[in-house]
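Subject line: Sequence and fold of a protein, written as structure tokens
Body of memo: The sequence and its backbone structure tokens, given next.
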Amino acid sequence: MAEERMGFTKDRIEKLPIPEPGKRKDYYDSGVRELLVQVTGAGTKTFYVRRKISGVSTRIKIGRYPSVSVENARKKAREILGDIEKGINPQDVKRAEREELTLAELFQHYLEQYAMKRCTTWKDMELNFGRYVGELRDRKLSTIRKTDVQSWVNRLGDKIGPHTANRNYDNLRAVFSWGIKRGYFEGGNPC
């Protein structure tokens, strides 16, 4: 089946015919050759980049129209294609982001693999983590910055007291250091 190519415009995208229910149709941009919009039988229009990576035809999702404009789809497609040229597989990057641990997950590994075996205060650590870490616990490790930790320590010190804030800071620093040493996290310790 031959590819249908056109210069994507807002008007052309909106006027694309909707295939019968359960079917899909791809239309390729003539400006950025690897950019396509897929139209489903439900009327959904989604931008993708299609490119061979390591010999395998790969489809990388950009986003749905009209949330993603034609101009933004082209811009993002060029960024993705530039990354591929540099040897970066965008799907590997997304997969790594999805698989990255949250602070709560790293803490659980730390507790089970280290603290329960070596620290007599591991139960207190577990209680305090649940009690005081709050907004940081469900964040991916790479999204936690030094300023986030400092703000958290300051708020904890103001609310509960400096001793509690310092002990929890020490525990958080130990968790990050252990995680980096064990290869659970490759970034720097935000503590």
About this structure: The two ends are 57 Å apart (CA to CA). Residues 162-181 form the longest helix (20 residues). DSSP finds seven helices and five strands in the chain. Helices lie at 10-14, 70-85, 90-99, 103-118, 122-132, 146-159, 162-181.
